[in-house]
Write a structure and sequence with these properties.
Largest sheet of chain A: 9 strands, mixed
Radius of gyration of chain A: 22 Å
Strand content of chain B: 15-25%
Oligomer: heterodimer
Helix content of chain A: 25-40%
Distance between the termini of chain B: 60 Å
Number of helices of chain A: 8
Helix content of chain B: 25-40%
Radius of gyration of chain B: 22 Å
Number of strands of chain A: 15
Shape of chain A: globular
Number of strands of chain B: 18
Order of helices and strands of chain A: HHEEEEEHEHEHEHEEEEHEEEH
Structural class of chain A: alpha/beta
Largest interface: A-B, 86 and 93 residues
Shape of chain B: elongated
């Protein structure tokens, strides 16, 4: 992540310099374009830089407790990196006026422990308008199918017409929630997006990262998009926007408010460290490298 | 929950059944046997079977029950016949309909699909066939399609499994491969994607499966496929190559990357990979990225140059059989996993290595 434009400045430029352009858009919107009501689910996860393989960093191997779970207490957490891309993309759609119907609402959503509200504050500091937290008890968590069912209810209640999710969370690495949600809603899905473009008539064209290159699909709203790392470069929230985010609305709810429980289909029997790998030491020159590789049967 | 003893009783019952000719006289045994029946979803393009997708057949065989393979697309007959020869498959379900053709793989074995119509197709056939285990590779195609299938079946999918312990219990890496979780599913249908490098592809010859037409619900996809832009290459496919050479930020530019790494790849008959840093800097194509967010590889030889060994990169290559590294920083983490490490300037060492390998 590098330096990025400050959200607020960019926002002001767009809104104060070209007001009549915005007016035109408003008229168009009335004709046949839907205003976007974007839902952005975000997840609080262990910071990607913290988790490290035991064989490289044995001193922090306490991350796995008694072969049953990952230790999360006292470990640095942050927003799942793919979710930062979702927020950034939503905010850019608004700032760049790239959707003909405009952006009516950007709603950040999270389900997790109370501390997930920090993640939602970050999302709002980056530009989300408001947020909803489903507060869960310690040790209670949802599987992707449960999250997808919950999100379906949120979409219905909030009348969202675009859901932008990360392609996977870096803790569970499941890569399922977006597709499951699209399936439950019967909506179009575009996974691993590296580019999102809006066309006339509520049409969205998405360039997807696939094995071997890229693939372009086109669909009408409503739809579900999942983000790939190349979609954008998320901004750092400025101090000013962090302060402003404190005034934005964060609605706290519980699973029962949504008529869902946290029962799981999968039971984790064991969590262990991967087998350690020992470096075989160094060789002096290219010839020794070749002979060592031959010795190991790799050449 | 069934105990371990329960499983072996189940296996025994099943094997007795399978050796018996004709219908079983013991109703309870046949009821048990119906408990396990796998469906491996195969990928095809333009009348050719994707050999990479045959790892799903191997995974299905490990479960022990009868294995059915599923395939769909236009003029599917020849692909179905090709799949019928694959060892270990009892039956092929084929659906002949061009609407499912966006299921492609290229010479880099890329796949894509429109899950909006493919998922309902698969669900109909799963319900009709009464399958208990549904398997596909953890490829772009599998990742795109299977969660949608799982949601339609109201099942919690298990992603990217590396090993099967029994019909309910599976092993998968989490936290970018830094932890290995064993999970037990209570769903009546198990929907899972498998890590291709963890299961060998089934042999393309030796089988004689029957071919039957699947049901086709002909669901219209609300999504339209527009175009694709796939990197063409004569080199082996990165995900399944026996040898991989990989370059990182140390290569400094795309020109240098191509000049230094490509001849080495050719000398070794290897696929080319790259670190995220190299991809982000534009030295190499996105599709070449090895790591948590790119491809996971496990070749016989992984030879990398100018890669320090960030956690996210290691997640994509640490299961390689032999790892060799060239890096000028003697303290780079990559040396802690490399079987053979050479400290030196890659612009000097890699061309020297290439020359010597050619001899």
């Amino acid at each position: 992540m590098g330096p990025s434009e400050t959200g607020t400045l960019h926002h002001q430029l767009l809104h104060y310099q070209i007001p009549h352009h915005i007016k035109q858009l408003t008229t168009k919107r009335a004709a046949n374009m839907s205003a976007l009501r974007i839902l952005v689910p975000v997840k609080r996860v262990i910071d990607y830089a913290v988790f490290a393989p035991h064989f490289l960093f044995p001193q922090i191997s306490y991350y796995i407790l008694d072969q049953t779970a990952i230790e999360t207490n006292g470990v640095k957490h942050s927003m799942n990196p793919f979710d930062e891309l979702s927020i950034e993309e939503s905010v850019r759609i608004r700032e760049k006026n790239s959707a003909p119907g405009g952006v009516e609402d950007i709603l950040a959503f999270s389900a997790g422990p109370t501390k997930s509200q920090d993640t939602l504050r970050t999302a709002m500091a980056m530009g989300a308008d408001r947020s909803i937290l489903v507060e869960m008890k310690d040790g209670e968590e949802l599987e992707p199918l449960g999250v997808a069912k919950l999100l379906k209810k949120v979409v219905e209640k909030e009348k969202s017409n675009l859901v932008i999710l990360g392609k996977q969370s870096i803790d569970d690495d499941a890569a399922q929630t977006g597709q499951m949600l699209a399936g439950l809603l019967g909506w179009s899905q575009a996974t691993q997006a590296s580019k999102v473009e809006f066309k006339e008539g509520d049409v969205v064209e998405v360039t997807k990262e696939v094995d071997g290159g890229t693939d372009v699909v086109r669909a009408k709203l409503p739809m579900v998009i999942t983000t790939d790392l190349r979609l954008n470069e998320p901004r750092y929230a400025s101090l000013q926007s962090i302060m402003k985010a404190k005034k934005k609305k964060l609605e706290k709810t519980s699973l029962s408010d949504w008529g869902l429980d946290a029962s799981k289909r999968l039971k984790t029997l064991k969590v262990i460290e991967p087998p350690p790998r020992q470096g075989g030491g160094k060789v002096e020159d290219v010839d020794s490298m070749i002979s060592k590789l031959k010795e190991l049967g790799a050449l | 929950m069934i105990s371990k003893a329960g499983y072996s009783v189940l296996r025994q019952a099943r094997s007795q059944l399978r050796s018996r000719v004709g219908p079983s006289p013991v109703a309870s045994l046949s009821a048990l046997a119906r408990l396990l029946s796998s469906l491996a979803v195969l990928e095809q393009k333009e009348g050719k079977l994707n050999p990479g997708s045959l790892a799903a057949v191997t995974a299905a065989q490990k479960l022990g029950g009868p294995v059915t393979a599923f395939i769909a697309g236009s003029n599917i007959k020849s692909v179905a016949e090709e799949a019928a020869k694959v060892a270990g498959i009892e039956k092929i379900i084929a659906v002949d309909n061009g609407a499912y053709d966006r299921l492609l793989f290229t010479n880099t074995s890329s796949t894509q699909g429109l899950p909006e119509n493919y998922a309902p197709l698969l669900v109909e056939n799963i319900k009709k066939g009464g399958f208990t285990h549904i398997i596909v590779g953890h490829t772009a195609f599998g990742k795109n399609l299977f969660p949608r299938v799982a949601a339609l079946l109201d099942v919690q999918q298990i992603s990217d499994i590396t090993s099967i312990e029994n019909e309910n219990t599976f092993v998968r890496p989490i936290y970018a491969g830094n932890a290995i979780a064993t999970v037990e599913s209570s769903d009546s249908i198990k929907v899972f994607t498998i890590r291709g490098t963890a299961f060998a592809a089934a042999a393309a010859e030796g089988g004689s499966a029957t071919i039957e037409d699947g049901v086709d619900p002909k669901v219209e996809s609300p999504t339209e496929w527009v175009s694709e832009d796939l990197a063409k290459s004569d080199r082996p496919d990165l995900a399944t190559a026996g040898r991989v050479v990989s370059g990182g930020r140390g290569l400094k530019s795309k020109e240098e990357f191509d000049k230094v790494m490509l001849p080495l790849a050719d000398a070794l008959g290897a696929a080319v990979g790259a670190s995220r840093a190299a991809v982000d800097s534009g030295y190499a194509d996105n599709s070449l990225q090895v790591g948590q967010t790119g491809k996971v590889v496990a070749p016989e030889l992984y030879l990398c140059a100018g890669i320090s060994g960030a956690i996210q990169h290691l997640a994509g290559m640490k299961d390689s059989k032999v790892i060799a590294a060239i890096n000028k920083d003697p303290d780079a983490p990559i040396f802690q996993v490399a079987d053979v490490g050479l400290v030196g300037d890659l612009f000097e060492k890699v061309p020297e290595l290439t020359e010597k390998l050619k001899k």
